[in-house]
C-alpha cells in the first residue's frame, strides 16, 4: 500500500492569528476526504449511496420497532421529503418495510430480513474502510484525537447555544 499524499495546506502556513480557521479547514478536509472515499466505495461495491447506508444504519440500531419517518429525518439531519424519497427507493428494493400504526399520519419503517443482511455486509465493509483510512494513527493518537474532538464538540455546542440566546 502506498503512503497517502499529505493533505493540502489551503492557507499556505497562515500565522497563529488564523489558528481557528486553519483548524476548521483541516477538519473539513479530513471529513470531506473520508466522506468522498466511503461514498465512492459504497457505490463501487454495493451500488449504494451514503444516505442509503445512513438510513439502513439508523433502522438497524432501532431494531424491530423501527422508526417513524420524523425520527429518521432528525437522526439523519435531513428534510422529511428527503427521507420519504429515500424510504420509497429502499422499500422498492425490498430493504425496508412500512409498519401498520394506530395513526396513519405517522409512518414507521424497519429493515426487512433482506435489509438486515444487506446492511450487515455493508457495515462490515464500512468498518474495514474506516479502519484503513484512519490506520495511520497509533492507538494513543486516536484516543487523543477523539478526546480533543469531544472537547471541540462541547465547545461548539456552547458557542451555538450562546449565539441562540444572546
UniProtKB/TrEMBL annotation:
Residues 20-154 form the HTH marR-type domain. One of its GO terms (molecular function) is DNA binding. GO terms for biological process: response to stress. SUPFAM superfamilies: Winged helix' DNA-binding domain. Keywords: DNA-binding. It holds the Pfam family MarR_2. InterPro entries: HTH_MarR-typ (IPR000835), MarR/SlyA-like (IPR039422), WH-like_DNA-bd_sf (IPR036388), WH_DNA-bd_sf (IPR036390). This is DNA-binding MarR family transcriptional regulator.
Amino acid at each position: 500500500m502506498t503512503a497517502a499524499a499529505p493533505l493540502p495546506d489551503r492557507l499556505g502556513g497562515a500565522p497563529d492569528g488564523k489558528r481557528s480557521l486553519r483548524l476548521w479547514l483541516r477538519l473539513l478536509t479530513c471529513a470531506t476526504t473520508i466522506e468522498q472515499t466511503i461514498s465512492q466505495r459504497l457505490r463501487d461495491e454495493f451500488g449504494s449511496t451514503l444516505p442509503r447506508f445512513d438510513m439502513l444504519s439508523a433502522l438497524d440500531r432501532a431494531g424491530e420497532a423501527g422508526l417513524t419517518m420524523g425520527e429518521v429525518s432528525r437522526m439523519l439531519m435531513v428534510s422529511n421529503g428527503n427521507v420519504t424519497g429515500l424510504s420509497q427507493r429502499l422499500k422498492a428494493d425490498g430493504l425496508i418495510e412500512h409498519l401498520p400504526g394506530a395513526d396513519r399520519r405517522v409512518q414507521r419503517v424497519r429493515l426487512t430480513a433482506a435489509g438486515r443482511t444487506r446492511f450487515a455486509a455493508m457495515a462490515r465493509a464500512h468498518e474495514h474502510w474506516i479502519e484503513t483510512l484512519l490506520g495511520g494513527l497509533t492507538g494513543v493518537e486516536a484516543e487523543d484525537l477523539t478526546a480533543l474532538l469531544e472537547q471541540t464538540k462541547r465547545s461548539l455546542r456552547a458557542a451555538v447555544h450562546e449565539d441562540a440566546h444572546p
